[in-house]
Amino acid sequence: MTPIVEVRDLHKRFGELEVLKGIDFTVAEGEVVSIIGASGSGKTTLLRCLNLLEEFHQGDVLIGGEAIGYHLRHGQRVRIGEREVARQRAMTGMVFQAFNLFPHMSALDNVTLGLTKVRGMPRPQAVELADHWLDRVGMLERRDHRPSQLSGGQQQRVAIARAIAMSPKVMLFDEATSALDPERVGEVLETIRSLAQEGMTMVLVTHEMRFARDVSDKVVFMEDGRIAEQGPPQRLFLNPESPRLQAFLKTSSF
Amino acid sequence: MNYHFNFAPILAQWPLLLSGIGLGLLLALVSIAIGSVLGLVVAFASRAPSRWLRSLAFTWISILRNLPILVIVLFLFFGMPQLGLSLDKITSFIVALSLYASAYMAEVFRGGLMSVPQGLVEAGQAIGLTSLRIKRYIVLPIMFRNALPAFGNNFISLFKDTSLAATIAVPELTYYARKINSETFRVIEVWLVASLLYIVCCYAITLVLRAMEKRLVLEKN
């Protein structure tokens, strides 16, 4: 079966600095993959390459079997046009560390914007679908609130609804709980966990090791722009092979 | 001091004063509208990827902001006919104030654009919006809200600048005040009344803008 996400020999540079030095990994349908590693190891950059928020310089990213971002013209690697990029981005859903809700819109309109303007859904249908997902993340009662009237945890749950309502093939979470007050982390993790249990395909960049261990099917450990080790969480967390991962796990709190 | 105030001859001219302030408001509204559209274009140009566009925008801003408005008014009204372009005085003044306003509005909107967090643009990209739609539904609405207080200050300032139209005989409030002054010699009274009219007008504009701010400006959290 075609994997939902396939990354082959991915390289990414910021000027002289190579931050991704040949990444290979796949995510199967329904799989939950956590990317862990120290800050600066390239995990967020990798995630942002999956929805073209970052350009990359070599290698391929395939979402649902479709190569994204680039095509070959006369043997040259050319970035595809803006409309195509936008279409391909909508194949993935992204949840940001800083929530990034549109501050001038209600929770409901945050969710319906993509449905009406990208998916071309009529407003009543978009509202119905948005209500469904807001209910699913426990935010239906506050659908008419502005982001400034919501707590961080509530904003992040709206952001999850906004992303997932677009029916992406895969959900990407970029340190979704790092900006939250400690007492708000649980509600967001619980939301993510329940979506995972329903079979949503997910890639999470996270510092929540316990969560990564409990929820993931696969854990990817990154170190200095490379994947140092990957495999099922039981093996990585209980019997880490590389000394780097052993050291990393020692310094991470569970 | 033994001055006897006599407002009667001035108040008898109320239709003139009223039409003067009306014309002043109209000049300000039209010029600010044109200046805002121009300013928005210049603001976007000042943040464009093309270096050529950016320096064009900054040249535009620095020329117009460093010229006194009176010089622009006189230059256009007396200078342009020499180049074969005669505009009537009202049009000429509107062109001058619009150009001047465009530089200030460009700065207001440039600040507004810089206040839109990159994360919101990325959130728009992530749900598959094209860059035009991101501008339309995310960047512009947030920019206008954040720019509103600065926009208001410039609005008041530009409205007061309409008094300079009197120098080229555009019949706005200052023009009529001078006229009534020379006809009645009630110097103190006429300028008191004119001042009061300007203050009331500016205050009313402030109230309207504040009400808009209250409704529109985004709370930080």
Description:
The complex is a heterodimer of chains A (about 250) and B (about 220). Chain A is of the alpha/beta class. Helix content of chain A is about 35%, strand content about 25%. Chain A has a six-stranded mixed β-sheet, with helices on both faces. Chain A has a four-stranded antiparallel β-sheet with strand order 2-1-4-5, covered by helices on one side. In chain A, strand 1 and strand 2 form a beta hairpin. In chain A, helix 3 crosses helix 4. Chain B is mostly helical and about 220 residues long. Chain B has a single domain, classed as MetI-like (MetI-like fold). Chain B has nine helices and no strands. In chain B, helix 4 packs antiparallel against helix 5 (about 90-115) and helix 6 runs antiparallel to helix 7. Chain B is globular and about 75 Å long. The termini of chain B are far apart. The chains are: A alpha/beta (about 250), B mainly alpha (about 220). Chains A and B meet through helix 2, strand 8, helix 3 and helix 5 of A and helix 6 and helix 7 of B.
| Intertermini distance of chain A | 35 Å
The CATH architecture of chain B is: Orthogonal Bundle
Major sheet details of chain B: none
CATH secondary-structure class of chain B? Mainly Alpha
CATH topology of chain B: MetI-like fold
Mean pLDDT of chain A: 93
Pfam family, one (chain A): ABC_tran
Subcellular location (chain A): Cell inner membrane
GO molecular function (chain A): ATP binding
Keywords (chain A): Amino-acid transport, ATP-binding, Cell membrane, Membrane, Nucleotide-binding, Transport
